[in-house]
Amino acid sequence: MIQASETIPLLGAPSPACSPSVKSRCRVLVIDDSPDMRSLLAMYLADDAIALTAVSNAHDGIKAFQSEIFDVVLMDLDLPEMDGYEAARLIRDWEAEHGLGQTPILALTALSDFTASKRTFSQNFTLHLNKPISRETLLQTVRQFGSTKRADSGSTLVAETPAKLSSAIVQSIAPQPRAVPAPGVLLVDDDPDVAVLVRAAMAPFHVGVDAVLSGAEAVARLKDRWYDLVVLDLGLPDLSGVDVLNYLKSDRRFRRARVLVLTADSTMEAMARSFGHGADDFIRKPFVVKELGMRAYRLLDGGLGPS
Predict the structure, then answer these.
(1) CB-based contacts of 29: which residues, under 8 Å, 6+ apart?
(2) pLDDT tens for residues 173-198?
(3) Residue 306 resides in a domain
(4) Cα gap 260→202, rounded to integer Å
(5) DSSP summary character for residue 261
(6) Could you tell me if 223 and 251 are in contact, meaning their C-beta atoms sit under 8 angstroms apart?
(7) 185 has which bridge partners?
(8) pLDDT digits 0-9 by tens, 105-164
């Protein structure tokens, strides 16, 4: 269940009132500025035992947290106006001010380097989860922390530290050697969150996705290997998407590769320009994950392979 974000008055302490249907469920607050990521998390956490509230910025997240009782908070780090680190600090200060235990705050972010992970542990977060994350891992982690908090009695609720997580959770979060489908798709988009969504779209078809953040990286990658499908944003930070499209069509190796343009430019001119330079399909952002997967797979299914 997704509850729409709304302006919530600041309260002195969370209200214990909760409807019976919600009270027995794990109550999750998602704070992420990407509409696509909020939709993906809603799909991942679609479960009768989970009640989900999703907001798009830290200010609304803090207001929601101070107005309701949540078992788990899932928070992006790279938020507009106020980042996740500051939001987590304000939540911890408010909990301490009102004599409350710490609600588990899980950092869910594309910032996967060791420095970012170390900073989240030292800056009021309970756990650092890297994007992309599988639905199974996310559900298992949310249930673990949610059940830990709800098992406590009274209003002082203390989350387990990451060291006390079950070994199954730790193993599912830690990088594990596993069979990964060979990438058949190259995504060219400067937004790391889009890579999470595209991988989720292609996962049911067992198709791997490589992702680069710029046109120059795309050209360099294309010199090394063949891709059956290129999913291409038009608004790249260096080369334009049209430049990359022209490169693909000028190289005889890729003349038979499929290109799906995925862009926030919803104008007819953008669509006409894309098709005019050889694109095979055109999808506007924000997009439906399932629809993207089906349309991309249709192009892959009709692919001709290297010439």
Answers:
(1) 53, 54, 55, 61, 64, 65, 68, 70, 72, 73, 74
(2) 444 443 444 558 999 999 988 998 89
(3) no
(4) 13
(5) E
(6) no
(7) 209, 229
(8) 998 877 654 445 455 555 688 887 877 777 888 888 888 887 655 444 333 333 333 444
Distance CA 74, CA 115 (A): 20
Ranked by mean pLDDT, the top range of 2-6, 21-25, 41-45, 132-136 is 41-45
> How crowded is the C-beta side of 174, counted as CA atoms within 13 Å?
11
**Alpha carbon distance 245, 251 (integer Å):** 10
Determine the Cα–Cα distance for residues 248 and 99; give it in Å rounded to an integer: 60
Range of the domain at 226: 183-301
- DSSP per residue, 47-77: -TTEEEEEESSHHHHHHHHHHS--SEEEE-S
In a domain, 111, yes or no: yes
Does residue 307 form part of some domain? no
Q: Tokens for 163, please give them.
A: 């060291």
| Domain final position from 140, 173, 206 | 173
Which residue has 């095979």 as its token pair?
Answer: 280
Looking at the structure of the chain, the number of domains it has is: 2
Strand, coil or helix: 114: helix
The answer to whether 137 and 102 have CB atoms below 8 angstroms apart is: no
pLDDT at residue 5 tops 50: no
Please provide the size of the chain in residues: 307
164 found inside a domain? yes
CA pair distance 289, 181, nearest whole angstrom: 19
At 258, is the secondary structure helix, strand, or coil?
A: strand
As given in the structure block, the two tokens for residue 283 are 């999808």
Helix, strand, coil percentages, rounded to 5, for the chain: 45, 15, 40
Q: Which amino acid appears at position 227 of this protein?
A: Y
